[in-house]
Amino acid sequence: MSNALAIAGVTAVIKDLLDSGLIDQAVTDTLGAGVIVTALAPDAVPLDGKDATQINLFLHQVTPNAAWRNSALPSRDTAGNRISNPPLALDLHYLLTVYGRAELEAEVLLGYALQLLHETPVLSREAIRRALNPTVVNGAILPTIYKGLRGADLAEQVELLRITPAALSTEEMSRLWSALQAHYRPTIAFQVSVVLIESRKTARSPLPVLSRGETDPVSKRERGVLAFSGLTPPLPTLEAVIPAGRQPVAVPGGLVTLEGHHLDGVDRHVTLNLAAFQISRSVPVTQGGPNEVTFTVPNDLPVGLYRVELSVQRLDDSHARSTNQLPLALAPQPVLPPFSASRNGNVVTLVLDMAPPVRPGQTVSLILGEQEIAAEPVSVASTRLTFKIAAAPAAGSSLLARLRVDGFESPIIDRTATPVAYLDRRITLP
């Protein structure tokens, strides 16, 4: 594959093709004047002086190649590791413009240029190597940019470069030259396809496959790929995570039920993963059958959004399998009534115990009724928090209380009641 220098390398190769072709065709003898080939923007081409007779090559557009666009995907595995370097496939769109000092000179140059492109529909690898590694004669110094193009690896890419004429309408050509802010000259459009640019970054390469499944001890044949009929795979799979009381969140010490299929087996345990604190905790299953299992949330896990998975070894398997992962929100649980409550004028100070411990950096607030009160900061993990309520309601006021940690609120609604009602989570102010 070629590298990032390939685009400039293509322009250099076509420029060399035109330059060499004009010499071979003795165009100088026909025109009676020298001809140069440039690769400039049209507005940078001089229109007077000795260089007025010339052919200019201008790359005006680069587009993705449709045939190669979805090749070699994906480029990363589920862990984010690079596993391949898919090429960047591009089509290059050029304008070839001719300039002449006298009448008919532009037409002569245009004819020779069209003939050269027509006779060279494919750029050979040898032509590319020759153009990007020119022979320096008589001690001439090769421009720096051309020295760098030697490392483009353009001749080594898988696809050969094809030159295809492109038809631009009068309106398209007019808009293009208006955007270039240059005087129009006889112009043809063509496309070069395909340029493949590949990254040089290292990729993760998996080891070869030694066997396709377990080997049967009797037939000595590999099990092969598991195939099954129906839409339900014969593998342990989680479908729902249901905290106790049909709550949307779990609480420390609360029960959580995992629903799914093929959950029966031995050595069953649940793994709780919290990316925020890089926690991975294994919890044993308390009870359950093939379609559901139950476990108890530990009291010391911090509040957050966990990824839950079940590991189980079924009787017909030789090793344990892990299910898919589902989210589980763990919310705080306040201990009511408060540890202490005092009033100094209109300011009420509440000391409240809670589970699980709050870690430094977590955002904690107490919501009394509709008022939110931020907790005093903690420097170490703590289960006891202090809240100061300015302009507190009158003494004896009984208000519903909720704890909010990092956006997760303690349950406040009894979802098992019909109709639903508030839980008895109240704080009476002194």
Quickly list its features:
elongated; Coagulation Factor XIII, Chain A, domain 1; five-stranded antiparallel sheet; 25 strands; 15% helix; alpha+beta; 430 residues; Immunoglobulin-like
β-strand number = 25
Structural category is alpha+beta
Largest sheet: 6 strands, mixed
3D shape: elongated
Q: How helical, in percent, are the residues?
A: 10-25%
Helical element count? Answer: 6
Strand % is 35-45%
Alpha-carbon Rg, integer: 37 Å
The largest beta-sheet arranges its strands as 1-2-3-6-5-4
Regions with little confidence, pLDDT below 50 for 5+ residues:
none
Mean pLDDT: 88
N/C terminus separation: 77 Å
Q: Could you say how many structural domains there are in total?
A: 3
Structure description:
This protein is α+β, with helices and mostly antiparallel strands and 430 residues long. The chain has three domains: 192 residues, no CATH class; 94 residues, Distorted Sandwich (Coagulation Factor XIII, Chain A, domain 1), CATH 2.70.50.70; 96 residues, Immunoglobulin-like (Sandwich). The strands form six sheets. It has a six-stranded mixed sheet. Helix 1 packs across helix 4. The N and C termini lie far apart (77 Å). The mean pLDDT is 88.
Show the helix and strand layout.
Layout: H1 6-24, H2 27-31, E1 36-38, E2 54-64, E3 88-99, H3 105-119, E4 122-123, H4 125-132, H5 144-148, E5 161-166, H6 170-180, E6 187-197, E7 237-243, E8 255-261, E9 266-274, E10 279-284, E11 287-288, E12 292-296, E13 304-313, E14 321-322, E15 326-330, E16 333-344, E17 347-358, E18 364-368, E19 371-374, E20 382-389, E21 398-405, E22 408-409, E23 413-414, E24 421-422, E25 426-428
Parallel strand pairs: 1-2
Antiparallel strand pairs: 2-3, 3-6, 4-5, 5-6, 7-8, 8-12, 9-10, 9-13, 11-12, 13-14, 13-15, 16-17, 17-20, 18-19, 18-21, 21-22, 21-25, 23-24
Helix pairs in contact: 1-3, 1-4
